[in-house]
């Protein structure tokens, strides 16, 4: 046989192996047997098949739901490779939060420096090699946080005798296991501050307190608590106090009456009718009061109440007082009937004395040293008598009251009786 040539009786055969499913890292060998040789010669060759495939990954911590408390530092996710051939490059990873890619995160671990509420939700990792990618199961991060009380308006303004209904709105995870108001209202719902008809005594500071229990997957259970306050401001219309029903003042003395008003909010306007001389609207003032100022005076106050809930209302109140100007007696008229001072003996004569004073006066009529008539607490005196010859002469009407230290004023009438 010539070197390099095949023997004429040499038979070359081939065998092809088709694999539908290749086990990972499986050694395959091919064996040939020469049955014609006297020694039944066989020979085999090992062939190692390197099966390549995309990664199979799992996110760690290995929990479907993982509870953490807000503020936890340096919380780490790992993207664990279960199997892959070849392994991913160090930057062959990506992370998803709520199905959105987290930008800038391409390594096998992802660290949250300080866990916040916004970090809640599902996380997945994806690993890639040259033959594909694999995405992990999801891990739901449940960020638990203490109560936060929201939506309380302070001051909370409510009009007297109107209802108040304030809800303590709480955000927490898990939800609060206790909500309470202090002081409590009338309602049976602990998260509501309720009064069916609020009064001034209900004004003040009210505190809402909420509490929950946070249970992390790793670590100790913690109690979360929050308190928030509101000032309940009860609005009410004006009412007057401290003003007498009447004021007595001596003529030509000053008069100063203050209209004391309590209201919330303070009055927009206070006025007197009739008005006095002063520039301060809440004070009725006369520097020198005269008798013609006697009478009834009214003080009116008005305010505007704007509650937190509901429409604006106007409050109004009016109070009345009487000004009584006191002055001494003045005899305004003392005369005989029809001004007849010449009368006949045995005829009837009439004397009339009128006094202007406040208060009323004691009025007396004298003839010489003889008291003919007297009346108390009156403004007039009338005297009737039958004329005799001895009735001629001077008749004096005198009047006095308690003003000016009881000064007495008098007037006289001369009566002439003509005897028969």
UniProtKB/TrEMBL annotation:
Extent of the signal sequence: none
Domain Ig-like: 55-142, 147-226, 238-310, 328-414
Gene3D superfamilies documented for this protein: Immunoglobulins (2.60.40.10)
Keywords: Disulfide bond, Glycoprotein, Immunoglobulin domain, Membrane
Example GO molecular function: cell adhesion molecule binding
Name of this protein: Ig-like domain-containing protein
Pfam families: Ig_3 (PF13927)
Compartments reported by the entry: Membrane
SUPFAM superfamilies named in the record: Immunoglobulin
Originating species: Potamilus streckersoni
InterPro entries the UniProt entry points to: Cell_adhesion_signaling, Ig-like_dom, Ig-like_dom_sf, Ig-like_fold, Ig_sub, Ig_sub2
Membrane-topology annotation of the record: Single-pass type I membrane protein
Major localization class: membrane
Keyword Acetylation: no
